[in-house]
Design a protein that fits this description.
With 297 residues, the chain is of the alpha/beta class. The chain has a single domain, classed as Rossmann fold. The chain is built from eleven helices and eleven strands. The strands form two sheets. Strands 6-5-4-7-8-11-10 form a seven-stranded mixed sheet, sandwiched between helices. The chain has a four-stranded antiparallel sheet with strand order 1-2-3-9, with no helix packed on it. It is globular.
Length: 297
């Protein structure tokens, strides 16, 4: 069943329209049809924010995000079995979590990552980290039963075969190892408001799958992991981009839309973060779900 349609409203890499459908059987939302693997260099342009974090994100927003990211990473360590974990960041971007963990005395030989940009991988490895190029499910030289902590942040929605990815990560986890997944959630208020076309969590055409608590929990348990915790965390960029897309493309006001850009205007991100924190504290679902799963001993 089709639930939404839209275009690449953020980078305008293509004028094609993309459809989101929902599976009657399991409830998963997914992009149908999807771009081919050959299209990845087009839909992930050199200006993609994850590859240019320092220049794409305002300094105030970076400082706020660094503080929130450090809190999140400390939380992962509190769940992991060691404070100096063998760590894998799937889709590590510019390697900021690798640098963060090294600053907390984790040796570089324990700090691994994967990324889809060869230049980025080369640059991070020059600093002494262990980063591999390519989709994690296709990389063969990652050590199995090795990692105490694996994080996959805003990645699962990008992949063609989520079960294959999670199955691969399960094999890479050491006994009692922790897997942290963060991905957009379709249970949120902003999804209900903007989900027909302009929801920022669609990120057309780079997001291919959208989960909720039930579909994500079922995915990891069917692959042998135990769900340790599920919670909802702020997703200010989805709120900001939702308003940006409406103002620019529905209202035809591109100048006004720039004020809603969550990467460039700290006030937008701050307001959305505060709103999401308030709703989450009251038990509401935000559009960013965090699931922590554990491999058996």
């Amino acid at each position: 069943m089709q639930v939404a349609a839209g275009q690449d409203y953020e980078y305008e890499t293509t004028a094609d329209e993309f459809r989101v459908v929902r599976c009657f059987g399991c409830g998963l939302h997914y992009l149908n049809p999807r771009p081919s693997m050959a299209d990845l260099p087009v839909i992930y342009p050199p200006t993609y924010y994850a590859y240019n974090y320092e220049t794409q994100v305002s300094s105030i927003s970076r400082k706020a995000k660094e503080w929130l990211d450090a809190r999140r990473a400390r939380d992962w360590l509190s769940v992991a079995s060691t404070q100096r974990p063998r760590f894998l960041d799937v889709g590590c971007g510019d390697g900021r979590y690798l640098h963060m963990f090294h600053g907390w005395s984790v040796p570089k030989e324990h700090l691994w990552g994967t990324e889809l940009d060869e230049k980025v991988v080369s640059r991070i490895n020059e600093d002494g980290y262990q980063v591999r190029y390519g989709p994690v499910e296709e990389i063969r030289d990652l050590p199995e039963s090795f990692f105490d902590l694996i994080v996959m942040l805003q990645v699962l929605e990008h992949v063609a075969d989520p079960p294959a990815v999670v199955e691969r990560l399960t094999k890479l986890l050491a006994p009692k190892g922790i897997l942290v997944i963060e991905t957009p959630s379709t249970e949120s208020l902003d999804f209900r408001l903007f989900g027909r076309r302009y929801w920022g969590g669609y990120h057309f055409p780079r997001h291919w799958n959208w989960f909720d608590r039930a579909t994500l929990s079922r995915l990891v348990t069917e692959l042998g992991l135990e769900v340790a915790r599920v919670r909802y965390i702020p997703a200010p960029s989805f709120w900001g981009y939702s308003f940006h897309h409406v103002v620019k493309y529905a209202w035809g006001c591109p100048r006004l839309a720039r004020l809603c850009n969550p990467l460039q205007h700290a006030w937008s991100a701050a307001f959305a973060t505060s709103f999401d924190l308030f709703r989450a504290a009251l038990g509401g679902a935000t559009s960013n779900i965090q699931l922590i799963a554990r491999r058996a001993a």
